[in-house]
Design a protein that fits this description.
The structure is a homodimer.
Chain A (H helix, E strand, L loop, with lengths): L1 H6 L6 H12 L4 E2 H7 L6 H13 L3 E4 L7 E4 L5 E6 L5 E5 L7 H7 L3 E15 H13 L2
Parallel strand pairs in A: 4-6
Antiparallel strand pairs in A: 1-3, 2-3, 4-5
Helix pairs in contact in A: 3-4
Chain A binds a DNA duplex through helix 2 and helix 4.
Chain lengths: 143, 143
DNA sequence: AAATAAATGCGAATTATTTGCATTTAAATC
DNA sequence: GATTTAAATGCAAATAATTCGCATTTATTT
């Protein structure tokens, strides 16, 4: 992680490295709260938010919004994956494989006022198996 | 608008109707702040947020997240459109036409822990023509 | 017109994110 | 390795976003 930071002209500080490790090790995008919990050494929330913002501006991480009313972040790994979010319990799963990038130029033609497309995000909202089972069980229980 | 509300079992109140009109008339998803400004009669912010939440739960509107650190909402019209967001100035444009829904079943097979997909959101992040021109002008200006 | 559950407004509380400033620290230089 | 310095951190306080409790009002039902 230190190398990544230095290559972007950032100082390889302990808090940043710890934060990047947390993000890298997580299987789903991480919120400020979660990051605070998972970073061993207590890291001030201001530092977390500042790190999110600088890492985002250097395209080391990218912001992901999941309709949870607070931001999440994941590594900006350039691989083309997206997210499934359970509208019942909020669980998030990464899934991979889509061809949206290959359609950038077509979408750009359709957009009147845009010059370039640089990223996209694709989120699916549905019900996870756990919640689906619970609902079914509830239904069966009705007198 | 009154009919839509009543059909969902909601009272057709003035604040809600005014809010729905604002959302319907906007060409891009609306935030709480924008809604507050555009609704003629002063509508309390708590009322706005409560309306957003009840309308969302009834699938009359849907939440849209644009990496702006606050939520936006648009009519839940079931048509398959998405958004372009300028990473420089934040401008948002709706564009239409994609075939993501036709790929739901394939994505569902790829997702280990999900039972259903009910919605998706697809956002493109790029640079609008206005910002692109500004940047170019700046570049040209460099000694 | 009266009854009633639902919705609003207001104020205050939470939660999310940012800012100012004194102190610390990574990296560059000697 | 010690010195220097700009960048980053921590702390406290500020601002923004969202929610909550409760008394009052209002859309619907009777």
């Amino acid at each position: 992680m230190a190398g990544i930071l230095r290559r972007s002209g950032l100082k390889a500080t302990h808090p940043r490295i710890a934060l990047l490790n947390v993000i890298a090790e997580s299987s789903a995008p991480v919120s400020a709260q979660e990051a605070a919990k998972r970073v061993g050494k207590k890291m001030d929330q201001a530092t977390i938010y500042r790190a999110f913002n600088t890492l985002k501006s250097k395209k080391i991480i990218r912001q992901v919004d999941l309709r949870h009313n607070h931001a999440h972040y994941e590594l900006f790994d350039y691989d083309d994956h997206h997210h499934m979010i359970c509208i019942s319990c909020g669980k998030v799963e990464d899934i991979s494989g889509c061809e949206v990038e290959s359609m950038y130029s077509a979408f750009l033609r359709a957009a009147r006022s845009f010059a370039t497309i640089e990223q996209h995000s694709l989120e699916f909202y549905g019900v996870c198996k756990t919640c689906a089972e619970k609902t079914q069980r509830k239904t069966h229980t009705i007198a």
